[in-house]
Amino acid sequence: MSCPESNITSLEKGDILHQQVLASFPLCDLTEEDLSQNPQFCKLLSTLTQHVDSTGLTLTLKTELEKAEQKLQSQRRNWLQSQGLFQTLKEMIQEHCVKKHHSIVPPDRNMFYETMEKCLLVARCVRMLDPSDTTEKELPNILGLEPEHVLQLMPLEKNVQRMKQSLPHELEKHLKKKCLSLLCYYHPEWENESENLKCTKLMHLSKQVAKDKKSAESLKERCRENKILLQRQTQLYLSELVKCIKLLQTLILDHRLKIQTDLDKKKLEYFEGKCELVLQKIKTEMVEIQLDTYTPDAISAHRKIREKLESELKFRQEEKQSVELKLASFEILGKEFQALAEEYGRLRREIEMKNWALKEFTQFSNK
Questions:
Q1: What pTM does this model have?
Q2: How far is CA 356 from the centre of its chain?
């Protein structure tokens, strides 16, 4: 009694181990049957789960990769902040240009945007003329210009200071407007509400967006898991389908072909009987046609004529054979006999001609 229990326990442990290995390596194209047929390979994969993750990276490399990703994310955030600020300032300038063509703008605001535009343009030019440490410093400058040459085109210092003082307020106003637009896009039903209520709801928008993003990521992860499960099920289905096809081929070859001989024999007997029946029917039809066409006297007369013609034909065939034998015996004599035969034929014709002339002369004399 103890032996079966130990076997059941070992089987259960083996199934658990197989499931753990498949869960640890979801990207590998493996099945439980592969692992059960290769226990040493299964043990190797089980040992590797302590040193690598589900993607195949070692733990040390995964730690270094996470640090590099964190550093990359930090640099990316810094770049996005500066790029976002730059794009926001460009949008403010573009909106000002559009507004200036459709309405009258106060001179101070016009001066503010012109100063900001010049400052951005000079900053871009200076950045292009002052490459970073990652580029080659031996490259010649554009048109021989230096950053100091471009800095001379900066607006007046007092205009720059005024622009810097007003910039935070204008920037905050523009960003607030964009945030409210984003809120109305995210919740169109809030568009007709008051600005204060919109600002209050705007404070909770980031949490809601983060919640929706988390939900979308969970759905994405679930889709990925379902995709992996679907691939495994598809592989299992295909393997079972191949087994069914092989079993069906075995049934066709081993069972159907055995009765094929008997089936062919029955078909042959059936067609033979059918052909015999058709022949008997043809003979019956021929007899009926003869009975409908000829009387008994006509049939007997035809039989006598047929017998006479057959006897005459037999006689002529025998005569033909005898003549052919004589001709063959004459041909043995060669060309000399042929000349003699021609001379004999000429003499026979002359004799016949003279006999005819003599007969005609005799008849004329008697008259």
A1: 0.41
A2: 104
